[in-house]
Amino acid sequence: MNYLNSDEIREKFLSFFESKGHKRLPSASLIPNDPQLLFTVAGMVPFKPIFWGKVEPTYTRVTTCQKCIRTNDIENVGRTPRHHTFFEMLGNFSFGDYFKEEAIEWAWEFLTKELNMNSEKLWVSVYETDDDAFNIWKNKINIPENKILRFGKDDNWWGPAGPTGPCGPCSEIYYDTGHVENCPDPDNCTPACDCGRFVEIWNIVFTEFYADEEGNLSPLPRKNIDTGAGFERICAVVQGKYDNFKSDLFKEIIEEIEKTFNVKFGQDKETDVSIKVIADHARAISFLISEGILPSNEGRGYVLRRLIRRAVRHGALLNAEGPFMRNILEAVIEKMGKTYPELIEKQELIKKITYIEEEKFFETLEKGVERLNKIIETLDNTKVLPGSIAFELYDTYGFPLDITKEILEEKGIMVDEDEFNQLMDTQREMARYASGSVEYDKTKSIYKEVIKRINQTEFIGYEMLESVQEVKLIVRDNNLVTEAKEGEEVELFFLKTPFYAEKGGQVADKGIIFSNLFESEVVDVQFVSEKVISHFVKIKRGNIKVGDEVTLKVDESRRKAIEKNHTATHLIHAALRKVIGNHVKQAGSYVGPERLRFDFTHFESLREDEIVEIECLVNEQIQKALPVITYIKSLDEAKNLDALALFEEKYGDTVRIIEINEFSREFCGGTHVSNTGEIGMLKIISEFSISSGVRRIEAITGIESLKYVNHLEKIVNSIATKLEVSRDNIESKIDEFMKIIKEQEKEIKKLQSQLASKEIERFLENPILVKGEKVIVAILENVDKDVHANTADVLSQKLGKGVVILFNKNNESNVSIIVKVSKELINKFNAGHIAKKIASYLGGGGGGSPIFAQAGGKEVKKLEEVVKNISNFLED
Q1: Structure pTM?
Q2: Which residues have a Cβ under 8 Å from the Cβ of 470 and sit 6 or more positions away?
Q3: 672 marked among binding-site residues
Q4: Does residue 535 have a known ligand-binding role?
């Protein structure tokens, strides 16, 4: 029988609702403009502002096929027929247009007419008090009353998608698969039974209420319809499959997995679990990376890392010994790229990032599993793994908790998650202290009193660098005081300040606070709460009292240097995204007067030509002297702009946006130049990795760039003078010298080999006997490592059965050691043990196999003692 394929089903759905007056819209991003959600978890998420009544809809009827990610049931993926991390949701939406009757009638029409589903196999449910929906199903659709079930809030109430938001009663449509294998009472089975026979394929949500944080409901300004139809489930039902993974959506992907591991889907239960996990996760991984998400240890990046590692673990269960995902990802891209072209556009990035993460996890997976298995053997009958062990596996081997749990569940063992979470919290707290992110009001109790008296310090430093203000509070030694004297270090508080307090990577301003009778140096400026600023000062002259009027003056040249570097970080961010891709996101920064650093997400080092291109692109914008425009928008308005933001950051109701022509647009509260020409020049001085998936650029601007160029020029001139050539000929002269040096090194090595060869016969004349076997102990001096190794080989060959211990004494700084034991004697001697023992005595380390080992030591003075007592080092 010919069934509709997935592409045909998707198109039929969208076309059907277009015929009912709906506007077809493309899928929104998996990353929602919603601080409550990590991912788009349902088709209605992009429309939440409309459901809330905050935004007027452009279209009152819309239809979509929305890509979604959910990981709340990740441990069930692979073990059931219908759990997924990535899935598609078909949706038709009404924003204050049609309501229950049309939504129900069209759902039924599509399923029974367009998809030709047998109406006898369809059942429905409604919310327990929703008589309107019940009567529509009974009287309009003519469904028998016994096939209309009333369910409570757990089953037939939807939302909100997050802590607060739109919600309402819903009506679900179920398909009877006839699968009764797990049913305790097949003759009386209904959708109320959780045996899996009945599959929910359609959910019509009558969105008419708003739920606040306490769960209170209030009517929405307009009644709406939100339909969610599980695409994977509908494909399986239409194609006569009980398991979603047997529909054509997964066919090519699973065939690639079968080929990769030489397995067959459907022949072994445990193998099937791994096949389904890899197939599901390959789809999620592809879509997440296509959205610019990179593996990391928090937020969305952690979800991606967790999925890759879970796929790797199941690949290892199918006997993978190294990265295997590439061809499987290609099958995903081939299958879904026509519908979602971003997969084709980002296919190389998807494969490369996954490969790097796979390779990294494979390095530790075997050790981690080995460690866990040894621990499992020692567990008593309580069958509970201590949280400290789970934390060790996470901290040392990179095992996400869910992988540890999954391995243990297969053996009937649980994890003490409370202890694990306590240790994680402790680690996070330590990290906060290490990064200096502890709030000031938690470290100084006096700040709580300060905040009560000063609700907010207004920053006026965008417009001015000098201002006369009244001293409101003085803090000395964690106490409020009314007066401070010359020589003291105190904190001053004002209602307004031109001094920028350290925030967002930008360092604090410095300067002076003074009056006719008083002067102090401002050494630091910090927030003691989200809104109150403290000025840390050293009093140089006179006294100061609460109520005094003083002048606050920012060091202008220092501020200007900081502004150059801050605007330059925005230009670097934009240039990085243009040169190496939109997956680049800011991961931290430092903006000081003398330099800047910019941390960003990327999976490999930048090539030299990429660094040059980024540098040129930034300097191009500087040379154009583009205006740097600042404006304030509401957070909702700002999110609709193409402005870069750290959405993990907390933003208020309004945000400040920095715009540089069409080149860069970012949320930012820092200070900036008025046009890019003020930066002068930017020079990148280094680019390197600071952690997995995060890299750092260090750069300088303005006068510091000139100083740097002058310094390099001085070095170049000095080298030219020493080489007695012009600057243009330095490179060729160095190449000439390098050629001579290499030839001389070859000659030295040749002479050393000749000298060592003459010594070999002398070494062989005086072997010592240990355990009745011949042992040669000899010392070379300052020879090349290749000569050292070759001499040891020749000695060993000429000696035959025996042991060779050959030292190479490098002046008085160190000694290298080679130990060779003939195969016949490995029951008496072990080269690795001997080398390690000698090296340890000489203050070094090393080792190797029973027949060959290398080591080194630093305490050269002890070498004669080792040679004299060599038999002691050959004993077991």
Answers
A1: 0.65
A2: 494, 495, 547, 548, 549
A3: yes
A4: no
